[in-house]
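Students often ask why inverse folding is considered easier than folding. One informal answer: many sequences map to the same fold, so there is more than one right answer. In these notes we will look at a single instance of the problem. The structure comes first.
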């Protein structure tokens, strides 16, 4: 039983940190995608 708790403690922390970082990066990637799309629209209008 103690071995199971130790394994959960050792594996749980990295999993939680990884999920937290992925969620944060996802939001930043969405903002970056929106900015790139806006830039593309401005460049299209500028080209005309």
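Output (designed amino acids):
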């Amino acid at each position: 039983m103690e071995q199971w708790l130790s394994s959960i403690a050792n594996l749980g922390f990295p999993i939680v940190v990884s999920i937290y970082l992925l969620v944060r990066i996802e939001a930043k990637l969405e903002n970056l995608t929106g900015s790139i799309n806006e830039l593309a629209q401005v460049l299209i209008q500028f080209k005309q």
